[in-house]
């Protein structure tokens, strides 16, 4: 509720970028894997997200940042159709996704992780990954019950694929452990593996580094870049750790009160007065705190 | 003594098979399908009709009855429960009770309230176990229960659909986001549960061969109790709860009082729930913050 009031008070000037590309000089000409235009959602009278525009081409890591309650996770929920948008369109691989369900959205190529880890705790690590592989396995129920050769062959393939994916994070040894008993950092990594198993074109990571220490975070940064290179997918990540965001994202979108207040390269964002203001409030004397990275992280 | 035990396990096995239907549907769709007991009754009538009027053999009549009940389960889910997905659990519960009455009264219209004598499908001799004699129906029941349990465990542990079911039961939202079709998973669950109810119906009517439109009601409630007793949502729990309940019931009938046996069964349930509210093998319920 406070968001509405605050929004009315605060007159944010939109730094409008007519091109859908966040960093036009890098991606212009590449086809967009994911494009959201004028995306918005109201909850009753509350406008949680409004006029959200985003274009991502493959091999691109984009950061979605903003203060708490800015609507970042809501954007993820819109992009995965957990919420149906009130306004706007989402194109996935050039196709309009109107009327699609969450399941169809995933099959069309969008996968995500969660801010609060949502693994299938009682299933083993390997089975969690196999759930993600679900769509690429196509034996029927009866073939499974009667253990036909097709079933055995596909299960074997699924096992190999799962192990291969787990090896990204060196987690093969924990394949048979229940996912719920893994340490926190490993659970976050497993969520990424599970999402990758659905063979996405676009991967949405919701605070992948939350609760990780600096060395784990830098390791994660390397892995995210590696995933991008190996799989050639577009990655959109929400993160409060500015070192990570500034370190690996080519483009950054800043959200405040449900609206995009800035888009650009990390250095543009760091020096954008609107962004600094959104994070720190109006601050006349303290010039040295221009960099939102030094203050913006909620987990420091 | 041994024959009591075997009869108890056999009755318990029937409860267990029914309880599996309750527990699977609860685990995956998060609803109590109170019409489940009446699917047993439909299963019984189907086996009765197919043998008496259509001249089916024992095995084909069981399969026919399973087929009809599976379809019935899917249809009921599609028409009655699916439109209410996302509605409050109370609305779904009332609907389930409505479906239960609907099935009972439909059976009343079709087959009248006169009890039908269920044909003897398993025409096998009685078996000598130690120094006591047990009916072959009891042994067939126990054997089918074991087979069903093994098949179901394998299904949920090792197959794609089974894993999808477990994933949906843990976190429906996350499962949908991983590309699992939640609706078809729920349909499959209803199909399996109802197919098992048909088997239970045939076994139950073979052991107690009178068939009425209300035949399924009491075993349905007992099996529901068994599911809660073992920990609702848990497949081994339903099995354990069912068998314990059957054994307790038969021993209460034999050594205490026939009239009080049901009261004793439910009293045991109350005690278990006081001591261990999630049931014997129930998972601890943790709310996600």
Short description:
The complex is a heterodimer of chains A (300) and B (289). With 300 residues, chain A is α/β, with parallel strands linked by helices.
Walk me through the structure.
The complex is a heterodimer of chains A (300) and B (289). With 300 residues, chain A is of the alpha/beta class. Chain A folds into 2 domains: 2-109 and 200-294, P-loop containing nucleotide triphosphate hydrolases (Rossmann fold), CATH 3.40.50; 120-187. Chain A contains 12 helices and 10 strands. Chain A has helices at 2-9, 24-27, 72-79, 102-108, 125-133, 141-145, 149-166, 184-197, 214-231, 242-248, 266-270, 273-280; strands at residues 32-43, 46-57, 61-65, 87-92, 95-96, 110-112, 202-206, 234-238, 251-256, 259-264. In chain A, the strands form 2 sheets. Chain A has a 6-stranded mixed beta sheet with strand order 6-7-8-3-9-10, sandwiched between helices. A 4-stranded antiparallel beta sheet of chain A has the order 2-1-4-5, with helices on one face. In chain A, a hairpin with a 2-residue loop joins strand 9 and strand 10. The longest helix of chain A is centred in the middle third of the chain and has 18 residues, at 149-166. In chain A, 44% of the residues are buried. The model of chain A is unreliable at 6-18 and 286-300 (pLDDT under 50). By secondary structure, chain B is mainly alpha-helical. Chain B has one domain (2-275): ABC transporter involved in vitamin B12 uptake, BtuC, CATH 1.10.3470. Chain B has helices at residues 2-29, 36-52, 58-81, 89-111, 136-158, 160-170, 172-177, 182-207, 217-230, 235-256, 261-275, and strands at 116-117, 127-129, 132-134, 210-211. In chain B, the strands form 2 sheets. Chain B has a two-stranded antiparallel ribbon with strand order 1-4. Chain B has a two-stranded antiparallel sheet with strand order 2-3. In chain B, helix 5 (136-158) runs antiparallel to helix 8 and helix 9 crosses helix 10. Chain B starts with a helix and ends in a 14-residue tail after the last helix. The chains are: A alpha/beta (300), B mainly alpha (289). Chain A binds chain B through residues 80, 82, 101-103, 106-107, 111-112, 114, 116, 118-123, 127, 130-132, 134-135, 137, 139, 141, 144-145, 151, 155, 194-195, 198, and chain B through 151, 154-155, 158-164, 166-167, 170-171, 173-182, 188, 283, 288-289.
């Amino acid at each position: 509720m406070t968001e509405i009031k605050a929004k009315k008070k605060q007159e944010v000037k939109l730094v409008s970028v007519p091109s859908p590309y966040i960093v036009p000089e890098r991606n212009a000409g590449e086809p967009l894997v994911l494009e959201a235009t004028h995306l918005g959602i109201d909850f009753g009278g509350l406008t949680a997200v409004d006029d959200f525009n985003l274009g991502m081409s493959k091999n691109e890591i984009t950061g979605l940042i903003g203060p708490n309650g800015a609507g970042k996770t809501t954007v993820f929920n819109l992009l995965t159709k957990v919420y149906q948008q009130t306004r706007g369109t989402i194109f996935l691989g050039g196709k309009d996704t109107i009327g699609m369900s969450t399941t169809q959205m995933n099959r069309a190529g969008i996968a995500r992780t969660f801010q609060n880890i949502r693994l299938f705790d009682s299933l083993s690590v390997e089975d969690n990954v196999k759930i993600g592989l679900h769509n690429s396995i196509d034996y029927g129920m009866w073939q499974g019950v009667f253990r036909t050769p097709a079933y055995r062959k596909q299960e074997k393939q699924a096992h190999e694929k799962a192990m291969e994916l787990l090896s990204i994070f060196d987690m093969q040894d924990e394949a048979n452990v229940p996912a719920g008993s893994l340490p926190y950092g490993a659970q976050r990594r497993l969520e990424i593996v599970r999402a990758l198993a659905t063979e996405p074109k676009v991967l949405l990571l919701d605070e992948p580094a939350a609760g990780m220490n600096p060395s784990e975070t830098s390791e994660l940064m390397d892995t995210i870049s590696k995933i991008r290179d190996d799989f050639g997918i577009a990655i959109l990540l929400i993160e409060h750790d500015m070192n990570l965001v500034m370190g690996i994202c080519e483009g950054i979108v800043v959200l405040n009160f449900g609206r995009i207040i800035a888009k650009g390269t990390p250095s543009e964002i760091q020096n954008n007065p609107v962004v600094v203001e959104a994070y720190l409030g109006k601050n006349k004397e303290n010039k040295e705190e221009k960099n939102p990275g030094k203050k913006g992280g909620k987990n420091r | 003594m041994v024959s009591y035990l075997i009869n108890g396990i056999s009755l318990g096995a029937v409860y267990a098979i029914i309880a599996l239907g309750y527990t699977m549907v609860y685990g995956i769709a998060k609803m109590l399908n109170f019409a489940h007991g009446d699917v047993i009754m439909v299963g019984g009538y189907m086996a009765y009709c197919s043998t008496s009027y259509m001249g089916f053999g024992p095995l084909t009549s069981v399969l026919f009855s399973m087929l009809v009940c599976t379809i019935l389960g899917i249809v009921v889910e599609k028409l009655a429960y699916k439109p209410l997905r996302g509605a409050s659990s109370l609305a779904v519960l009332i609907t389930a009770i409505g479906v239960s009455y609907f099935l009972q009264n439909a059976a009343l219209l079709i087959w009248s309230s006169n009890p039908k004598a269920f044909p003897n499908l398993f025409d096998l001799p009685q078996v000598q176990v130690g120094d006591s004699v047990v009916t072959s129906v009891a042994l067939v029941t126990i054997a089918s229960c074991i087979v069903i349990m093994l098949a179901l465990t394998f299904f949920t542990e090792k197959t794609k659909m089974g894993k999808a079911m477990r994933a949906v039961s843990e976190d429906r939202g996350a499962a949908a986001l991983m590309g699992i079709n939640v609706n078809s998973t729920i349909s499959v669950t209803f199909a399996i549960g109802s197919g098992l109810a048909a088997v239970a119906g045939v076994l139950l009517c073979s052991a107690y061969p009178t068939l009425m439109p209300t035949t399924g009601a009491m075993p349905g409630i007992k099996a529901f109790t068994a599911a809660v007793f073992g920990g609702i949502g848990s497949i081994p729990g339903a099995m354990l709860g069912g068998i314990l309940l059957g054994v307790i019931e038969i021993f209460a009938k034999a050594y205490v009082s026939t009239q009080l046996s049901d009261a004793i069964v439910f009293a045991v349930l109350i005690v278990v729930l006081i001591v261990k509210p999630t049931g014997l093998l129930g998972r601890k319920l943790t709310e996600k913050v």
